[in-house]
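RECORD TYPE: inverse folding
INPUT: structure tokens
STRUCTURE:
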């Protein structure tokens, strides 16, 4: 059994060396990477993405009931309409204030 373990250990070491060094033509041998173990960086990155996703989901679900969403949407539309009317009045005043000054 010890001989088998030694052969497997040497095989893994040889695969690691082949993965890192190019051959005489400049090609790098691609091996199956899950034999060598999963990287912790990818797990950390996945956790960060998941945390961002959950944070975004918490921000999106501010209202518990659907009528709250509708009311908020109506209020935002009303404020936009009000701002639009105010801007329209400002533009009308600016147009009426213009005078023809040739010199």
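DESIGNED SEQUENCE:
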């Amino acid at each position: 059994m010890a001989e088998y373990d030694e052969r497997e250990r040497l095989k893994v070491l040889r695969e690691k060396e082949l993965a890192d060094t190019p051959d005489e033509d400049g090609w790098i041998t691609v091996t199956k990477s899950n034999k060598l173990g999963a990287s912790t960086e990818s797990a950390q990155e996945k956790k960060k993405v998941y945390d961002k996703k959950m944070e975004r989901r918490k921000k999106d679900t501010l209202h518990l009931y659907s009528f709250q969403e509708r009311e908020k949407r109506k209020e935002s539309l009303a404020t936009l309409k009000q701002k639009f009317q105010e801007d329209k009045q400002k533009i009308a005043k600016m147009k009426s204030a213009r005078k023809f000054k040739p010199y």
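NOTES: The two ends are 105 Å apart (CA to CA).
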